[in-house]
């Protein structure tokens, strides 16, 4: 019996104090970097053509990141105090937001890349809405679908079971993982892996084609660097989203043993908020600050 307990403890054991410190550090970096990136992007967007489909996707990505960042200070407070002081309903909302943010961000990344691929294969510099109002209507429609159709059912079914332990604990909703939830998770994991691998394959094909067409000194051409920027989006998905989903395959069968480790993997998904800071810095250091990082090419 003792040997069995020891085995269970070391399945993916991590000291709770170490875990809370790691989570505090990660979310602090996310909040500071994400907030700085959001502010910088707001200034850069004012100088950019917002009618392009690419920029519209980026603006919606900014909105998604900003909404999530508003919940991060509450996470940091909890990890520092080890005590949730904001009520169970708000805990449920804050806990759900990181999952919502992950999948909304993933959807906008995929949309942005598809737009770029269409621009490349159609040999267009950019794809635009006819008027700015059209981009506003399109964005409002997307968020209406998210907020009205997807968000209410998610919040209704998420966090219904009371977690074990102290009433002042938060984010302990792993007791809700049933067989149906496991199957749904496996489907989501398969879809994300398939989409990321497909996008990576297309991007590699495009880069190889560009290099062959340009032949020598391809690094001097704007079209080559535009494709590297598209590759950056895919790397964000690989670095931020894949570790969590790959670990989740194992986690679904070891929920009680690996909860804290899963929280760390989940926090890594939120590092995608730092893409705004990276975009802003790339745009800011370019001569004339023309924000060509968002070119639709």
From TrEMBL:
UniProt KW keywords: G-protein coupled receptor, Membrane, Receptor, Transducer, Transmembrane, Transmembrane helix
The UniProt transmembrane annotation reads 25-45, 57-76, 96-115, 136-158, 183-211, 223-247, 259-277
**Oxidoreductase recorded as keyword:** no
Give Gene Ontology CC terms: membrane
Q: Which residues does UniProt call coiled coil? A: none
Q: Which residues form the G-protein coupled receptors family 1 profile domain?
A: 37-250
The GO terms describing molecular function are: G protein-coupled receptor activity; oxysterol binding
Cite the InterPro entries for this sequence: GP183-like, GPCR_Rhodpsn, GPCR_Rhodpsn_7TM
Q: Does the keyword Transmembrane apply?
A: yes
State the compartments where it is located: Membrane
* Topology in membrane: Multi-pass membrane protein
Pfam families named in the record: 7tm_1 (PF00001)
Q: In which domain of life is the source organism classified?
A: Eukaryota
**Gene3D superfamilies the UniProt entry points to:** Rhodopsin 7-helix transmembrane proteins
Q: What is this protein called?
A: G protein-coupled receptor 141
Origin species? Xenopus tropicalis
Q: What is the lineage of its organism?
A: Eukaryota, Metazoa, Chordata, Craniata, Vertebrata
């Amino acid at each position: 019996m003792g040997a069995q307990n020891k085995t269970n403890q070391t399945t993916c054991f991590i000291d709770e104090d170490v875990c809370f410190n790691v989570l505090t550090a990660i979310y602090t970096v996310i909040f500071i970097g994400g907030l700085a990136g959001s502010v910088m992007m707001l200034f850069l967007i004012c100088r950019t053509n917002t009618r392009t489909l690419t920029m519209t996707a980026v603006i919606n990505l900014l909105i998604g990141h900003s909404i999530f960042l508003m919940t991060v200070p509450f996470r940091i407070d909890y990890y520092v105090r080890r005590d949730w002081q904001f009520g169970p309903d708000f805990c449920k909302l804050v806990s759900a937001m990181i999952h919502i943010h992950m999948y909304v961000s993933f959807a906008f990344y995929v949309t942005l890349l598809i737009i770029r691929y269409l621009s490349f294969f159609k040999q267009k510099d950019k794809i635009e809405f006819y008027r700015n109002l059209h981009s506003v209507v399109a964005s409002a429609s997307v968020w209406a679908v998210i907020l009205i159709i997807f968000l209410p059912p998610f919040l209704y079914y998420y966090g219904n079971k009371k977690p074990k332990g102290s009433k002042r604990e938060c984010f302990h909703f792993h007791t809700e993982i049933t067989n149906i939830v496991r199957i749904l998770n496996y489907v989501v994991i398969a879809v994300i892996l398939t989409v990321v691998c497909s996008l990576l394959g297309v991007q590699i094909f495009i880069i190889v084609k560009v290099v062959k067409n340009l032949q020598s000194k391809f690094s001097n051409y704007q079209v080559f660097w535009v494709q590297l920027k598209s590759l950056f989006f895919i790397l964000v998905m690989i670095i931020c989203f894949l570790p969590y989903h790959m670990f989740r395959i194992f986690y679904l069968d070891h929920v009680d043993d690996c909860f804290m480790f899963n929280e760390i993997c989940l926090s890594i998904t939120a590092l995608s908020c730092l893409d705004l800071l990276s975009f802003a810095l790339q745009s800011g250091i370019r001569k004339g600050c023309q924000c060509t990082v968002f070119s639709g090419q």
